[in-house]
Amino acid sequence: MNSFFIYISVILAIIxxxxxxxxxxxxxxxxxxxxxxxxxxxxxxxxxxIGFIYGRFDMFLDITLAYAVLNFIxxxxxxxxxxxMRGNND
Length: 90
Hints:
By secondary structure, the protein is mainly α. It has four helices and no strands. The protein has one domain (2-85).
């Protein structure tokens, strides 16, 4: 069972690399934000799988929740910054 989680983790780590293309070649900043959000979401799943592999899911779940909050706050901060750049201050 442990080898199954390792196999899935390696595949997920490879899949995390795919949105880097969207970040690098994204025609707009919104496409780049979407790629960063996708990387953040897949990283959350990868951290949970690593917790299963090491048998410390409870500790890694706390790390995952903290990372999710930071990812969400980062996306909100970028969105607010882009909104203020456009002159749509409400």
